Amino acid sequence: MIEVKDITKKFGRKKVLNGVSFTANKGEITCLIGINGVGKTTILNAIMNLTPINSGEVLIDGEKIHKESYEKITFIPDAITMLPQMRIADAMQFMADFYQSWNQVRADELLSFFKLDPNDRISSLSKGNTAKVNMLLGLALDVDYLLMDEPFSGIDIFSREQIADVFTSHLVEDRGVVITTHEISDIEHLIDKAVILNDGVVLREFNAEDVRENEGKSIIDVMREVYQA
Amino acid sequence: MKNFLKLTNFELNRFSKIYITLIGLTLVMQTIGMILLSSSYMSDVEEQLAMGNSMEWITINLGTFSFSSLTRTFWFGGPIIIAIVTLLIYVFFIWYRDWFGKNTFIYRLLMIPTARINLFFAKASTIFLMVLGLISLQLVFILLENELLKILVSDAFREDQSLKQIIFNFDYMGVLYPNSIIQFFINYGIGFMAVFVTFTGILFERCYRLKGILFGILFAGVSLLIFISPILLQVTILNEFFYPIEIFILMAITGLVVISGSIWMSHYLLNKKIRV
Amino acid sequence: MVLKRFWKLIALAITIVAILVTYFIHTAIVVASQFPDLEIKTISGDKSVLEHIAITGDYYQEEGNSSPLIVTLEGSTYYEELSYFEKLEPYFPPNEATKLKDNYRNFMRGKMYNPSSFFDNEEHLAYVGAEISDWGTNYLPEYYLEVDVLNKETNKSHSFQTDLPGVEEVNHVDVLKAQVVKENLYVIVKLNYLLADQYVDEIKVYTMDISSGQIVGDQTLFDPSEQSNKDRWSHLSFLNHHSEIGSGDNLLLVKDIGRDLEVNQTDGFTDEIKSELLERAFYIYNISTNQLQELQIPEEHYEKLLLNEFNLSGFVFDTHVYISYVDEGNLVVLSYSLENYKLESQQTYSLKELDMEDSNIKIIDNKIYAVENDMKNTAKIFVGDVTTGEVLYKGEIVSKQNSDDRNDYSLNFYSVKKN
């Protein structure tokens, strides 16, 4: 379980996060929802210790993040984090070099699933394929938790579908996924849990299934309710 | 340790094209310089011989040709200066390249399951290796160019110099190639300490941005003060109190304090304050 | 696999280590072979007279390598061949003051290692240094005396600073001797200053009360106004002060009076200034008794001493004072007893056979040492007994290697010391 406990974060005088708390469970897809600039990426960065927070804490399976945690949790930012001059094979080699949790079998499976050529240079890939490689590098790690920042933004419809398919496959099963988006419609059906953010606070944290069954509302209905209140 | 070596190798590979270019540039420019200068000298000599002047007259009036005739020109010093400037710039660029550009590689580096200070050590080691590599290869180049000189200029007009004389006659090479191995460690130790402190300064900037520049400069200033404090004490309030050997020991200690302070501060910044 | 992926790192590391190790081995060999190993070759006599004797000087090579060096019976030591840490020592060759550093490390901190500034006996170690506090408006230095006296029994030192009384505009101050007698510290300084358009030397004896740090006595040995004569120059010098921390009471002084002559050249166009020595007097000053005693020089020696202005040496040793000069290849030593200040013996040694043109003279333990300093690649050594006049040793400093292939250097020896 990832526990985000009352974290605050200031950029200068501006409070970006003002006491954000939520949890994300293993085996569930948790979605951080909010308009752009609401601090979704900052939360993911904070979970990964990629940015300092002013107060609060983040626990991963009850522990603060430390170097071995990166074998257990990984982050797929919105842009690829490999050098452009690398070929896909080099990037995979880099991952294999540094991560014990790197699973080459799964990486190969993803390569053929996404129809990628390992000899292509990252700089020569289309936006959609770059996003797929980015996904691949994260998904091929045998980690318990996956954080994804806007995995669907700015890529073509077919790539989007392919990536969405991944979420329903065994590649994601049993793992805890935290995903951010400002565009819920594509992935609404995938989400187990939604966390609605605005002005640096969590407006609502709820189980999508429960709301659907008990209140008969979709996530978008809840969002409308929350934002227009 | 293994991760550190992998990271160092990785950092080295990232800069290897420019690095090999620097090595090539040095060898090519110095060789061309040697060929141009010696052939222009030899054509002057032949002109004088044709005019009927004796060899003695020529060696007195034109002078003899030695390796120093090359070292004083831009052909020799130019590539060295270019290499030094490039490496100085790279001390900064080795960090900033991970933040800037389209693909922010710093995400990947910070998420490697290893102590983050290894990034610091790997980048520092890369700089050190590249500096020492250039220094060593330049020695070999001098020997090669000296052999070339022997082919190009005939014995009568050539003043042969030993490696030590070549270095001795070329001002700043004395700093780069000291006679005593202890002096070598002192010179390069101070240089590498400066690299460590600069790295910490860069990390301050990366953590606190604009304010961090101030912190970084402050950190460097304090480091310098700590390092030279024995000398400052010696010339001010203590009035030549310390013996030279004591100054040496004290500065070795303050140097180690600065280096460990720099490592500790960088460790703290990378773990607690760094932002992507 | 590992090799293939890490080849750049491995190759670079191997290159660096291999080249730098080779370079430093090469440098060590070059430095070691740069300077010739010198040895003392006996021509005649017993070389044991050179035991505990160090001959110091400089080595020069045409290509620009130079180094101070020490030659003993064991061979030669060059400063440039010393290790980094040995080079950190402030003086090479070490003198008597630097040796004090080993025993009195704390006391010796921050002091100038000028042997004449020190006094050393069983009870005390004293230091008097002439230091410059400031530069005056007329660019003349302002001196003060830095005094530090160590009581060896209590291991406590007492330091103070004092101005030089009676000294105003002075060009230079030199501490010639410090001596502790009971509760007092006697300090002899030589001042050089301008008096009526003439630079004059003045020798002052200050008496200081150690406990109060006050100057209680101030005496001038020679009236400087006497020296201030428009047509004459005059110099006062100590002959036995420079390299030793003597605990003896007696100082040997020489007072020279001379004039500069314009010598008309035969061609009638060029004039040359020539210095002529007119008077030369020797004095013994006893610190304890505060007595100045002139030594009587026999007529035949006096003439030669005037002619050989610069070939003069003087020593005070134990119960005797020695005045020595070189004249036409002869080394002459006059011995005076300190009891009655009378000439006791005179010895003449011929250096002609050794062909020594220019030499440095030193008397140590009743033996006279002469070492050639003629800027050649060898140097002759002569040792004689000053009491008997016997020639004890003749030898030569030569290169151990065949000297034929190393003629591009010269040796300049300027001092003989007891090691």
Describe this protein's structure.
The complex is a heterotrimer of chains A (229), B (276) and C (419). Chain A is of the alpha/beta class. Helix content of chain A is 32%, strand content 26%. Chain A has one domain (2-228): Rossmann fold. Chain A has helices at residues 40-47, 88-98, 104-114, 127-139, 157-168, 208-215, 219-228; strands at residues 2-11, 14-24, 29-33, 55-60, 73-76, 145-149, 176-181, 193-198, 201-207. Chain A has a 6-stranded mixed sheet, with helices on both faces. In chain A, helix 3 (104-114) packs antiparallel against helix 4 (127-139) and helix 4 (127-139) runs parallel beside helix 5 (157-168). Chain B has 2 domains: 1-177, no CATH class; 179-276, no CATH class. Chain B is globular. Chain B has a two-stranded parallel sheet with strand order 1-2. The model of chain B has no long low-confidence stretch (mean pLDDT 92). Chain B has helices at residues 2-50, 55-61, 67-71, 74-99, 106-110, 117-152, 163-168, 173-176, 181-235, 244-273, and strands at residues 65-66, 158-159. Chain B has 276 residues and is mainly α. Chain C has 3 domains: 1-34; 39-83 and 243-419, Lipocalin, CATH 2.40.128; 96-232. Chain C is globular, with a radius of gyration of 26 Å. The model of chain C has no long low-confidence stretch (mean pLDDT 85). The B-C interface holds B 5, 8-9, 12-13, 16, 129-130, 132-133, 135-137, 139-140, 162-165, 168, 177, 179-184, 238-245, 248 and C 5-6, 8-9, 12-13, 15-16, 18-20, 23-24, 26-27, 30-31, 63-64, 83-85, 88-90, 101, 105, 109-110.
